[in-house]
Specification:
With about 450 residues, the chain is an alpha/beta fold. It folds into three domains: about 10-100, NAD(P)-binding Rossmann-like Domain (Rossmann fold, 3-Layer(aba) Sandwich), CATH 3.40.50.720; about 105-315, UDP-N-acetylmuramoyl-L-alanine:D-glutamate ligase (3-Layer(aba) Sandwich), CATH 3.40.1190.10; about 320-455, Protein-Tyrosine Phosphatase, Chain A. It contains 15 helices and 20 strands. It has helices at about 20-30, 45-50, 85-95, 100-110, 125-135, 170-175, 200-215, 230, 285-300, 305-315, 340-350, 370-375, 390-400, 415-425, 445-455, and strands at about 10-15, 35-40, 60, 75-80, 100, 115-120, 140-145, 165, 185-190, 220-225, 240-245, 255-260, 260-265, 270-275, 320-325, 330-335, 355-360, 380-385, 405-410, 430. The protein is globular and about 65 Å long.
Length: about 450
């Protein structure tokens, strides 16, 4: 037990419909704290998350926050999704109440070495791959962070020789900067505008991401995507040793592709792994993710065989360019996790003869480049959600006088699916890759992806 929390009165702000506050709540109760959970959403909205903390000795203030929970307390733990300028956090600051986050608590108490992964796209795939490669070695590996589970409850089992692999969001990194901590090995996949509904502007979003390297030590490593022009400018900001990875260039230190091999070169040692033709994941962006993961795992003792076996057998993650099935010669792919134009562009450019379903909630993204890629790569585009009209207008401008793609607007995902099936032909691909969040029509991207897969399976 850590005496830091015993008998302390602690407010957990934001349980979240995705359950972002579950792990820290369970941990604090176990540590003997008196916990109040507060959320603007009602108990009905939060019922999925509440199931996990049922029966714990907690005070609940749901359906809105109360000022006293931010005045008369020893500490406030805030969920990453809560905006930093919340008036309740302001009240806590004015009353001298310490504010912390789950990830900060984890970093302060974690005895193991850490690999942190961030980026606008590809984080979850890269994190999962690193975990799977390292699980082939003799080391004990823990995978968590933004990828779905809190590791706070596992702290007691962790040893200094273990490795923790953490997916880190821009919000989590923003919080980590307050305690000036970065992972020992940091991987950054790419940087493109995202979450501009939460970050003031692209500058503050990029700065949040940059915290993953800003507090590293000289002996640490930063593994950066050489093919991303924004990341190349980070070289001067790194205190640590930089390893680059690239699908286009041979890099001196890092990982690259050569004659169907993955080549990893670190501190004068080079390994060459002949496996590119066996990789199952489609798209150049996935080759980037594989290079980044191979490089990070190699630094932690993975050998040629560990890397080759994992990257050639890995089928990908659910809802991330996931192959669902083939029916009557049409291949169906579920890429519901593509909640930004950039991740949808990566999906669209991975295929030929493509019918695309896209659109959804508007989180302030620029769809210009996405519309251009659709105009050049798609046979037909069926749009849903709040952004449908905007994207349709942009595609028709970029299409100029060409016949294709045909663009349609549908009211529901079901209507879109029916329409898309009339446009798809044997030998072609029908892809759900929305380029948008799902909140205008679904609880989350998983629900959207599951509905799509159910429709494919009922064909």
């Amino acid at each position: 037990m850590h005496t830091t929390f015993k008998n302390k009165r602690i407010t957990v702000m934001g349980l979240g419909i995705f359950g972002g506050g579950i792990g820290v709540t369970q941990f604090l109760v176990k540590e003997g704290a008196h916990v109040t959970v507060t959320d603007v959403k009602s108990g009905t909205d939060l019922f999925q998350s509440l199931r996990y903390i049922e029966g714990l000795p907690l005070t609940y203030h749901l359906g809105g926050h109360r000022e006293e929970d931010f005045i008369d307390m020893d500490m406030v733990i805030v969920n990453p999704a809560v905006p930093g300028d919340s008036k309740y956090l302001q009240i806590a600051r004015e009353n001298g109440i310490p504010i912390d986050t789950e990830i900060n608590i984890f970093f302060k108490l974690c005895p193991a070495s850490t690999i942190g992964i961030t980026g606008s796209n590809g984080k979850s795939t890269t994190t999962t791959l690193i975990g799977k490669i390292l699980q082939q070695t003799s080391k004990k590996v823990w995978v968590g962070g933004n990828i779905g589970r809190s590791l706070l409850l596992q702290l007691e089992e962790m040893r200094p020789s273990d490795i923790v692999v953490l997916e880190l969001s821009s919000f989590q990194l923003e919080a980590l900067s307050s305690i000036k901590r970065s992972p020992g090995i940091s991987v950054v996949t790419n940087i493109s505008p995202n979450h501009l509904d939460r970050h003031k502007d692209i500058g503050s979003y990029v700065l949040a991401k940059k915290h993953i390297i800003l507090h590293q030590k000289h002996s640490d490593y930063a593994i950066l995507n050489y093919d991303d022009p924004k990341l190349r400018t980070w070289e001067t900001k790194c205190n640590s040793r930089i390893l680059w990875y690239s699908t286009k260039h041979s890099v001196e230190n890092g990982a690259y592709l050569k004659n169907g091999h993955i080549v990893i070169s670190v501190n004068g040692n080079t390994v060459s792994i002949p496996c590119v033709s066996e990789i199952k994941l489609p798209g150049d962006h996935n080759l980037h993710n594989i290079l980044a993961a191979s490089c990070a795992a190699y630094l932690n003792g993975a050998n040629k065989q560990n890397i080759e076996e994992t990257v050639t057998s890995f089928p990908g993650l659910e809802h991330r360019l996931e192959f669902v099935r083939e029916v009557k010669g049409i291949k169906y792919y579920n890429d519901s996790k593509a909640t930004t134009p950039e991740s949808a562009i990566a999906a669209v450019t991975s295929f030929k003869d493509l019918v695309l379903i896209a659109g959804g909630y508007d989180k302030g993204s620029d769809f210009g480049e996405f519309a251009e890629v659709c105009a050049n790569h798609c046979k037909a585009v069926i749009l849903i959600g709040k952004t449908a009209n905007t994207i349709k207008e942009l595609i028709s401008r970029k299409r100029r006088s060409k016949e294709q793609p045909h663009v349609f607007i549908a009211n529901t995902l079901n209507d879109a699916f029916q329409k898309a099936n009339t446009q798809a032909m044997p030998g072609g691909v029908l892809l759900l890759s929305p380029a948008c969040a799902s909140y205008d029509m679904f609880n989350n991207y998983e629900e959207r992806g599951k509905q799509f897969k159910d429709m494919v399976f009922s064909l």
